[in-house]
């Protein structure tokens, strides 16, 4: 049976105080380089390992990270969570995942629950209903580490990781325009979300560049972000029943894109013969659709990794973090036959 050494044992063996040993093990700037070296070498020699339960009680830290997303089944978020976990577990943190299902009330409940579990920080992607970000502002002002990713709170000055939503949308809309489509509708999520507005702005910029008018009737918001199938079907039926119905639809989110293809098939609408489609999705099966789907992919795994690295750096900082950055990563447009001009 192996012997478990404590900080007290190391202090006694080296003739140091327990507080000096503790600070040396934690890399404190208050301890000299020689003392640090002495303590670390002895700790390694006796195979010292901190007791995680005692550590948590003493430091009020759980070595866990709370994650708030709309839905784990969403292709984008499942890939982002894989990225989060790949960094967190290698750095000794557990990940606690919560889902809002696009509900602001559930988001608030989830945050309170995660705080009651003494998570060391939060990775947050806002729900489609969220307009009040005061709970995050309050926590941020108290010095609690928060990093937003994908669906960020514009008014909370903390670290953020986003995709280049404007360019992704611009590229997709321009592809449809260059293919020959002039009447292009935009099906998107709640206007509460900053990404919804950024993606619309990219879409509109492509229309403006090619001197095409934007028709307000071609813009359809699904305020539940695709969680309610009837809401999407109603929006699509409205577009298809217009006197001057669109020739193509550019879709602004993962769940909406997949759902739109299913609904068009159900309604007997052929893609791209009756209407062309391009949309944001990270699904790995869209190239197997009939027809294969033109998509804008986000580097979700990388976004999850970047957000986690930023959060852990903030958690482990010895000084209060006062400078914050927004990391932007590029999207990728993959053209397939759903956006082709019918013969």
TrEMBL record:
Pfam families: LacI, Peripla_BP_3. Keywords: DNA-binding, Transcription, Transcription regulation. Residues 5-59 form the HTH lacI-type domain. Gene3D superfamilies: 3.40.50.2300, lambda repressor-like DNA-binding domains (1.10.260.40). SUPFAM superfamilies: lambda repressor-like DNA-binding domains, Periplasmic binding protein-like I. Signal peptide: none annotated. InterPro entries: HTH_LacI, LacI/GalR-like_sensor, Lambda_DNA-bd_dom_sf, Peripla_BP_I. It comes from the Bacteria. PANTHER family: HTH-TYPE TRANSCRIPTIONAL REGULATOR GALS, LACI-RELATED TRANSCRIPTIONAL REPRESSOR. This is LacI family transcriptional regulator. It comes from Mucilaginibacter lappiensis. The lineage of its organism: Bacteria, Pseudomonadati, Bacteroidota, Sphingobacteriia, Sphingobacteriales.
